[in-house]
Design goal:
about 160 residues, alpha+beta, Aminopeptidase, 6 helices
């Protein structure tokens, strides 16, 4: 997919109404290996993306005509925090810096909105993702059981 449009730059933009199913398919593909490991459908696959799009919480990375990455941001105004509720990149597009680009966007968006911190949650089995988050300056601030999974909360101060 990414190779099919070599030379093109990725475009980061707000998700558009009607793209919910495209985003769900992307998320399903991105989480497929984790779903096999935990034996259940990950929560982000079940999300209502059309509702999130209507609430202006979803951005996508597009190469040519293909949506290859997504980030969902949710404000926690009481805590001056933006939560990365989901970040996903199609397996065929991974390894090209798109995840890093999406997280950098979340940090910039948090700064523009006057927030002091970005947070995210990850299942402990997502070791590659956790390593990326740590490399980008996130630190573990909590570990807890969520249903049958152990999840960690990570945070990064941005101001």
């Amino acid at each position: 997919m990414v190779d099919a449009v070599s030379g093109a730059d990725p475009v980061l933009r707000s998700a558009r109404p009607g793209e919910g199913e495209t985003i769900r398919a992307l998320v399903r593909a991105a989480y497929a290996n984790y779903a096999k490991q935990v034996g259940r459908t990950p929560g982000p696959v079940k999300d209502d993306y059309e509702r999130r799009i209507a609430a202006s919480e979803v951005w996508v990375v597009q190469y040519g005509d293909d949506v290859v990455g997504v980030i969902v941001l949710k404000e926690q105004g009481d805590d001056l925090v933006i939560v990365i509720d989901n970040v996903a990149v199609l397996p065929a597009a991974q390894g090209h810096g798109l995840g890093r680009m999406l997280i950098t966007f979340a940090e910039q968006e948090a700064c523009q909105r006057g927030f002091a911190e970005v947070r995210l949650y990850a299942n402990v089995i997502m070791t590659r993702n956790i390593a990326l988050y740590e490399h980008l300056g996130f630190v573990e601030v909590d570990r807890f059981r969520d249903g049958g999974a152990t999840r960690i909360q990570m945070a990064k101060r941005i101001r």
